[in-house]
Amino acid sequence: MSDANNQMVEKYRNNFLKEVEANVEEGDWVKMCMQCGVCAGSCPMGPYWEHPPQEIFMMIRAGKREEVLTSESMWMCTSCYNCISRCPRELPITHIMHGLAHYAKRLGIAPKNQATLRFSQKFWDNLMANGRVNELKLGIALYFLDGIVQGVKNALAATGLGLGMYKAKRLNPMEILGGHSIKDRSGLKAMIKKAQEIEEARISGNSAGNSAGNSAGNK
Ligand code: SF4
Ligand code: SF4
């Protein structure tokens, strides 16, 4: 377990709902769920969920911290917004699911080989290198995620696709040399850094507020 995770276990001992409310995007909505099941019934990923949203929200309230944060379920959300448009309590379900996934990643306890997580990290690293996505390098990185042998097999299997994209001018082999960059890479990095600082400050502020609330409630 990571240090960050141990700190949170210590800080929110036996109160996973408070931890989610303080640290997860839109987490303070979880307590509003009335367990009607409309979200689970509306979700196109229904057959593939380990735990659908309704169940995740019940597990949070039941304190099942490890089961929730190490689950693959939140990573399965495709952001189709079916659930949000139908929830009678108007919970921002999609945002909570992504917020939980992001929080698990921040704590270092998200499932390591989860496909969405791996893709997201590769996409982010690729984007941040030049401020725009280098599609050739991203494709190669994804093909070779599971090693050289599997990468070569994947590349050979997709030869027709690659040639088709090249002929349609959707793939430029010269991008392998670095590709285009935005004009102000350092400006973009400064902007992202500032956004991360604001987010960290927001989370710390929420945590401080919750801690104060907890202490007051315990008196
Ligand atoms: S539709 Fe809304 S209220 Fe119903 S179970 Fe899902 S999140 Fe809860
Ligand atoms: S937004 Fe996510 S959780 Fe909601 S219905 Fe779509 S896939 Fe399911």
Automatic annotation (TrEMBL):
<dbReference type="GO" id="GO:0051536">
    <property type="term" value="F:iron-sulfur cluster binding"/>
</dbReference>
<dbReference type="InterPro" id="IPR009051">
    <property type="entry name" value="Helical_ferredxn"/>
</dbReference>
<dbReference type="GO" id="GO:0005886">
    <property type="term" value="C:plasma membrane"/>
</dbReference>
<dbReference type="Pfam" id="PF13183">
    <property type="entry name" value="Fer4_8"/>
</dbReference>
<dbReference type="InterPro" id="IPR051460">
    <property type="entry name" value="HdrC_iron-sulfur_subunit"/>
</dbReference>
<dbReference type="InterPro" id="IPR017900">
    <property type="entry name" value="4Fe4S_Fe_S_CS"/>
</dbReference>
<feature type="domain" description="4Fe-4S ferredoxin-type">
    <location>
        <begin position="23"/>
        <end position="53"/>
    </location>
</feature>
<protein>
    <submittedName>
        <fullName>Heterodisulfide reductase subunit C-like protein</fullName>
    </submittedName>
</protein>
<dbReference type="InterPro" id="IPR017896">
    <property type="entry name" value="4Fe4S_Fe-S-bd"/>
</dbReference>
